[in-house]
Each structure stands twice: as structure tokens, then as C-alpha cells.
Amino acid sequence: MTNGDDRKQSNPDPHQIDAVIAKLKKLGSKKIRDGMARYGIPSDHAFGIAVGTLQKLAKELGRNHQLAAALWDSGWYEARMLAAYVDDPDEVTPAQMEGWCKDFDSWAICDTVCFALFDRTPHAWKKVESWSKRREELVKRAAFALLWGLTVHDKQAGDERFLQGLELVKRAANDERHFVKKAVDMALRAIGKRNPRLNAAAVVMAQDLSNSPDATAKWLGKHALRELTSASVTRRLDPTKRSKARKMA
């Protein structure tokens, strides 16, 4: 293992892969593994390692696309989490995204891969659109986890992309499946916290959903509306108050 931070590494040899897996086994904790079930995370192929420990290890390893692929193929939960942190977004292909997405077996691996890797790739927006139309629960969740991540990490995207994202939220608002519903909720709220214009659009949508006869859409609208119209969000998005805060600083 090398201390490379974000520097790209050469292709890993089998010894490096074996060394990483061995280190993961050593870092494993039965206590953490036993607790995974409480969060709906399968533990039958896991070592039991805290996310912070995996992130630290990822920094030591540095970016390495080939190592990430090998870690993912190992099937171990923490190896796949680590793969999301060490892979190079510029080398990720649409085919890889499809393959990994089909392997998602928990909300935790889905969200980590989307937040730490997929939302930094040039293919992210296309996958939001295509995955939002899919029936598989965790694939559809990935669409909205990805959209959620893009609200934070895509600094260059214009409002129109996120307004289109709101239309996808509206389309999925009656999906009552837990993992989809939660991701749609987070995407709606995240879009509404990006800037004042998007907040206004998200509030209108949340109001419409809160009046829906569909129970899931109603819950989604009311839940989002509480946060998007809260004093803390309103204050943070108010340009005059942000200007005053900068002057005071």
C-alpha cells in the first residue's frame, strides 16, 4: 500500500489486492458486523468496519480504477465501499455504472457509491434519467440518491437540470417502497436547498404533493414542506442575510 492521496496508482497486482482484503479482515469487528442488521445492511459477507476507517484507508491507497474494480468483484461489503472511495470518476464507464448498480444489495452501498463516486462522473445526469424509470427498488433509489448527490457536488449545473429533476420526483412520488420513497424525499429536499429559485419550485411541488390523494405522495409533500419552509433554510437561502453574515465575518 502506498500513501498516494488522490494520485493515480499503477495497475494493482494480485498481491496488492490480497493485501487490501487481508487488511480489511484484520480491521473487522464482530460488534459492528452484528449491528449492521439494525440498519438493514446484510452482514453475511461483511467484515464489520466503520465508514471513517474505510475513508482513511482509501486516502492511503489513492485513486486506482483497476484496484476499485478488483475490490468490487471480491463481493465483500467493505471492499465495495472502499472501491467507491478509490475509483477514479473520470475512468468510470456507463457500463460499469450499470454493472455495479445491479449489484446493489442495500441502501448503504447504493448511497455510498452514488455520493462518493457516480455523481462525479460525466455520465451521472443520464443515469438519473434512465434509472428513475427502472422498476428495481435499489436501482430506482440510485437515481434519486444520484440526484441528491448532484445537488451538492455538481457546482456547474444550471437550475434547469434540477427543475427537470423535480419532474422525476413528481413522477416517482407515489412509489411507496421504503428505499425509493426515502431517496425521492431526500432529492426533493436537497434540490430545494440549493438556491432560492429552486427552493421556490420545490416548495410549490411539495405543496401540490401534500394535497395529493395518494398517501405516499402526501407524506412526501408534507415532510419536504416542513424543512423547505423552515426558518433555518429560509435564512440560509436569503441573499441579504448571507451578505450580512459575510460582512460580519
Proportion in helices: 55-70%
Figure out the total of helices.
Answer: 15
H and E string: HHHHHHHHHHHHHHH
Q: How much β-strand is present in the residues? A: under 5%
**Shape annotation:** elongated
Structural class, judged by helices and strands? Answer: mainly alpha
Number of domains: 2
Low-confidence stretches: 1-8, 243-249
Estimate the mean pLDDT confidence: 92
Number of strands: 0
Radius of gyration: 20 Å
Query: How far is it from the N-terminal to the C-terminal residue, by CA?
Result: 42 Å
Main sheet properties: none
Describe it.
There is one protein chain. By secondary structure, the protein is an all-alpha fold. Helix content is 69%, strand content 0%. The longest helix has 17 residues. The protein starts with 13 loop residues before the first helix and ends with a helix. Helix 7 packs parallel to helix 9.
